[in-house]
Design brief:
about 20% strand, homotetramer, globular, six-stranded antiparallel sheet, Alpha-Beta Plaits, alpha+beta, about 45% helix
Chain lengths: ~260, ~260, ~260, ~260
């Protein structure tokens, strides 16, 4: 075969299989999204359309790749949790990352007009991605908590920052005013100066978004017999995922492989 | 800082830095593009609009990431050559692959309507990607030759296959007829049965496409003085890249880092 | 500093940190030990002195590296289990493997004369080694079971093989006679032809050796008061490690890090 | 086969193949050799017997593994250069490192009494090791230069340090006196205070040791005919390997694979 003379170059490919029986998290992040947000006039500190667009793209990824059992998103980042037992793409890191990130980016452009019907997309965005293994459920939960705590800290900070800016402060000035302040000081500032009760802001902003396959019961009546089957519906929601409540109510999410 | 309790999860990220001073090739491939081509009614064996769309996306990637010195594309795949000395994203494999593949995929959707003004994109495509290191110029050249030989073999085969199918054969039947045949047999078949001189088909089909930064001389007349400067223009072309001719005419492409 | 011009070469070192919070098993294997055994006239199928020498070396490794919680050895191989939470050598794979394997090999030569007082060591042996991560206790137990099942299968085979050879068969002939036979056939052959009750052979041969830190109670009488403290003593033993019994009796071995 | 139930654990082994067509350097380093040198009363700053023992072990490694084309040693470290085209152990990093480091360590104990006939080895030493790829000859040469410059800097410093200590200074005091001083100051100090001409010290101390396969011509007279053949003899030498001279005189060392 004519090809064989050059085919040795394939031997330079390095295997990048991820450790079996571990949770794989693929996290993607918008590249230069500060600029992207500016160019497209995103609302500050949170643009609800931009967040909904992110959520729709993540949902599309989950609907396509059924080994993803959970996803968590905030701002311009999204984390996808692939189940421990998955052998998708033989667990090759580059395959998993590239398929997810490209599907997400393509969906972003594809769905843009639904969320921004009056705004033209100026240029195609890019995202970076990486895959990380977590050996057990509790560490995976810590990973997700890490992202949600981050969401809270950033959102509280940005809510103050943009309140100050909208009230006339320069960005530098607003930043100095906030530097080193604690959570209770910021909440107090929002309430006293701007009449904002932080805890009443939408969960979408304060907690980010998560997506999971919700178990639903389907009852079918057939004469006098009622048969019940359960199915799973990809569902977007917002709320706390640090505490145990959510996970106890949906034990099948992490337990799926057992 | 409240975050610290969970931040230990960052330690599970594994470094994936590629070996310094080696050529890095990021190759991306359409995921399930057989189906994608069917759904969108791509012309067989080659859809010129689809190929031009691929080329436009690859050009956008090269214009964005200036450390890419060369790209070669065929069918639904593209290879991007990052220069040896590059320290882009600290040579982290997942960063390089994810940014390139997501930018490419987003561009594909973004530019779709230019190349298919009358066709609606049915769903966003995905691509997989990988990064491979090649330690020296001659092995890198062998890599590119490998892809171009592959292009030739596949295109010749597909040209025969689709000629037989268009002439009424079933796909299975056409495949059996071609199985195990040699290049000269196929050329003969194309000429005798279908009046096609294979070597006169467009280079775009037979050789694929390459993109490079073409050095151009700019002369500026300023009174009696003429000053010359050279600049580089991202250029798409088609032709042989296996022989030495192209590389001798453009020595600056691979020599850029020396 | 004069050194700096060349120090860039350090950047070619690739990080090889093993995933945190996973059991690390470093397995070492004698290199070309068939020849080594022949040259040194090892008893077949098992040389008790050679096995004891292996055990003493493994014990020395465990006494030196206190993050190793368990070791299992058979023939010319030994597996060392490093506890999940260990950060020894920052979990760098090459460091862990190289220190263990070199300490083992050096100990082998160092302790040779104790076990073979009348035999001169003809040349220094080498061992290869590798590190593998196991994400949870049950997979780690399966790893150890894998090695012990292997020990059993090989030992039963070799006991038959060498009985036949000692009875005058050629090696090839003995191998053909055993090819494809089942466990019960082999046991029967040993009993009927050679009067060997396989299950009464020493555990050292049938089960291999394991080493662990045995918890022992130390009572000290001080007048009328008796104070008890526990300490851990590196202990070599032989027996089943596939079933739960051993692990239930010594729950602190795998639970040590919790 | 009874084994199969557990054999899945093999899938947790991760491939660690080194990039083809690159120089592989395996560097090993004595573990806690400060203590080892103290316990065994090594001469300071250089113990000629200990250095010769290191060299003999490295030579044994090279004689065993013929894909090693060069080795460079200083103090308690040694670097082994495996030729670019080598496929030894399929270029698996852990195999290469473990076999080299264990053979070296075992040889150290094996050959101890030849170099220290009157000193008992108190305990077996260990070495750590790592493998690094270098894509071309000039970077490999820079690596070797890096080690030889390091040898020079350390040796000059230690020669001063131990001269001061032997003259009655405390170690701390001697270190402070040397801190931040330049090469010419140190040479001057050695000459003025201690009558030592640094450049006349043995090359073994100042330049370290290198080992290569020296090409030698063998002439055989057969009647009136003289036939010449060349063979390669593993040879230890000392001298500069930073400049071009050595490499020009022995072009076959790095060129061996072409």
């Amino acid at each position: 075969m004519a090809n064989s003379k050059y085919e040795y170059v394939k031997s330079f490919e390095v295997e990048d299989r991820l450790l079996p029986c571990t949770w794989v998290v693929v996290r993607i992040d918008g590249r230069s999204f500060h600029r992207f947000a500016d160019v497209h006039g995103f609302e500050k500190p949170n643009d609800i359309n931009a967040l909904n667009l992110m959520n729709e793209c993540a949902k599309a990824v989950m609907e396509d790749l059924t080994d993803i059992v959970f996803a968590y998103g905030v701002s311009d980042e999204y984390s996808f949790v692939i189940q421990k037992a998955s052998n998708l793409y033989k667990r090759r890191s580059s395959k998993l990352v590239s398929v997810i990130v490209s599907l997400f980016a393509a969906s972003y452009v594809f769905n843009w007009h639904t969320h921004f019907p009056d705004k033209k997309l100026q240029y195609p965005p890019a995202f970076d991605g990486r895959a990380v293994c977590y050996p057990d459920d509790s560490i995976l939960r810590d990973y997700l908590s890490w992202r949600q705590v981050d969401c809270h800290i950033n959102n509280q900070y940005n809510t103050c920052l943009w309140s100050l800016i909208k009230a006339g402060k320069s960005k530098d000035c607003a930043n100095s005013e906030l530097k080193g302040t604690r959570a209770d000081f910021k909440n107090e500032m929002l309430f006293t100066q701007f009449g904002i009760n932080y805890n009443e802001l939408p969960q979408l902003f304060r907690k980010g978004s998560y997506i999971y396959r919700k178990k639903v019961q389907n009852s079918t009546a057939n004469g006098t017999q009622i048969s019940r089957k359960s199915s799973f519906v990809v569902t977007i929601d917002h709320g706390d995922i640090i505490g145990d409540t959510f996970w106890k109510e949906h034990p099948y999410i992490l337990g799926a492989e057992e």
